[in-house]
Specification:
The chain is mainly alpha-helical. It has 18 helices and 4 strands.
Length: about 500
């Protein structure tokens, strides 16, 4: 190619200026002072961005300037969460089947959209978990026309699944500070403690229907089933522990009391899955929060186990033993569960691609009963693709939480220690859900999606805080084309931008 005189002169000038050496020794574009500072910060910034799990953060410094906004929409999420536990339709029978909670959820979504548009911001971040939630909803819609009962599919899709998806999206976008996480946890822990007190009171007074050792009706509404109640209390217990560690004085004693009530509440449900979930999540908390104090942790665990066995309802140990030997269950509950799980597994194996349809398993079940196993039931209803999407919603946040835990494990600052504790407590809540969902068909309910939303929100908060620390000057631009991890199941590495 023949170069013009001006082009040759321009190339000669560039050749005399300092340049950045690319990978392999090739010569790149001139390295100006601003560009040099950007390349020096690239690795630290990319590390923070990899925690976001998607295009979750603005590609600029001063990300904190956009956090803590849209308080009215966040207040709506707060109200929805309160109604979730208060159960207005149960408290006020006159409401009947009026979809008050659903109306609140949609109203909050509209308020949020209006607030975002007026602020000139994009409507939502997008994460791997959101993609999986949409995939589950799409499979529910896809299989609806061929389901034995399309109405059951529609009812399950719109209520409760649609509400949980809406709140998940809102929480991921609105819970963007530690203060907001703590404010929600204070609400749900107090509400959970109230449920625990109600369960304990009903158990002490004998105000329940007993079928052998099967306890029903401890708490009304969506917590009527003892397994669901035990799952809810188990998930809230790690949050009570987190609040205990973050509080002082009387507040610390109050949240410690809430943790004790939640624990006893799990025991009085006589739920076998709830007991295993309690042991698993408590083990995670004791092991990870007790780092460096193994002897004290071991002694504390022994003391707690002794107290648990002391307050354990009579006959509970025999019920727990039936987990390992179904034939010992005199009520027939364990044998029935085994048959239901076998039925769900056979349907999932025979229809791996096209399931029976969301909310339709009971039609193919025994005596119209659920599978009492979230994994087998969603596999039977939505096929293997639905099961994979469901598992990713569980595993992706856990991976990002483990990454935060590793990065803050040996930090000495109060902020880093608090972040470590938050990541561990959410992990414990996930472990509780994973165990309890083996004994309950709760795959479309809020238990998982609230926990996943906390995890996604925390990783975004952590990434935003890292970006603020690495780029304290809010006016400093960032390098164009910077990459952000598109998912949380794989590691994101700093991209080497060639400048040749």
């Amino acid at each position: 190619m023949i170069l013009r005189g001006t082009q040759k002169a321009h190339i000669n000038r560039l050749a005399k200026r300092p340049t950045a050496v690319g990978q392999g020794g090739e010569i790149g574009l001139p390295l100006t002072p601003v560009a040099g500072s950007l390349f020096n910060r690239r690795a630290e910034r990319s590390n923070a961005e990899s925690l976001s799990g998607g295009s979750d953060l603005p590609l600029r410094s001063g990300a904190g300037a956009t956090r803590g906004k849209h308080w009215l929409a966040f207040a709506g999420v707060y109200l929805f969460t309160l109604m979730l536990y208060a159960r207005p339709n149960d408290l006020f029978p006159a409401l009947g089947d009026f979809p008050l909670v659903k109306i609140v959820a949609i109203s909050v979504l509209l308020i949020y959209i209006g607030s975002k548009i007026s602020a000139g911001e994009r409507l939502s971040v997008w994460t791997l978990e959101m993609t999986m939630l949409v995939a589950i909803a799409a499979l529910g819609l896809l299989f609806m026309p061929i389901a034995a009962s399309p109405k059951d599919s529609l009812d399950t899709l719109t209520d409760p699944y649609l509400k949980t998806v809406i709140i998940f999206i809102l929480m991921v976008n609105l819970v963007d500070t530690r203060q907001r996480i703590f404010s929600l946890w204070k609400l749900v822990v107090v509400c959970g403690a109230a449920l625990g007190v109600g369960a304990i009171r009903s158990y002490m007074k004998g105000e329940f229907a007993a079928q052998g050792l099967r306890i029903e009706g401890l708490v009304g509404g969506m917590f009527e089933n003892p397994n669901d109640l035990a799952t809810a209390l188990n998930i809230l217990l790690p949050f009570a522990v987190a609040l205990t560690g973050a509080s002082k004085g009387l507040a610390r004693l109050f949240y410690l009391g809430c943790a004790a009530v939640l624990t006893i509440g799990v025991l009085v449900t006589l739920s076998r899955g709830g007991f295993l979930g309690l042991i698993a999540s408590s083990g995670v908390l004791l092991w990870k929060l007790g780092r460096g104090r193994r002897l004290k942790t071991t002694l504390g665990a022994a003391l707690i186990c002794g107290i648990l066995f002391a307050v354990m309802p009579g006959g509970y140990e025999n019920r727990i033993a039936t987990i390992f030997n179904n034939e010992q269950d005199q009520t027939g509950s364990a044998q029935e569960r085994r048959e239901l799980m076998e039925r769900a597994a056979s349907i999932a194996i025979s229809r791996p691609i096209v399931g029976v349809g969301m909310g339709n398993f009971h039609i193919y079940s025994i005596s119209e009963k659920e599978a009492h196993n979230a994994y087998l039931e969603i596999a039977a209803e939505l096929g293997v693709m639905g099961l994979i999407a469901y598992l990713i919603v569980i595993l992706a946040p856990l991976r990002s939480l483990r990454r935060i835990e590793r990065q803050t494990r040996d930090m000495r600052s109060k902020s880093e220690r608090e972040m470590y504790g938050l990541s561990v407590c959410i992990q414990a809540a996930f472990i509780a859900y994973i165990v309890c969902s083996f004994f309950a068909s709760i795959q479309y309910l809020w238990y998982l999606y609230y926990t996943a939303a906390y995890a996604v929100a925390l990783r975004q908060i952590y990434a935003a805080e890292k970006m603020e620390i690495s780029s304290p000057n809010k006016q400093t631009p960032v390098a164009p084309g910077a990459k952000i991890a598109r998912g949380a199941l794989w590691r994101s590495f700093p991209s080497r931008q060639r400048t040749d």
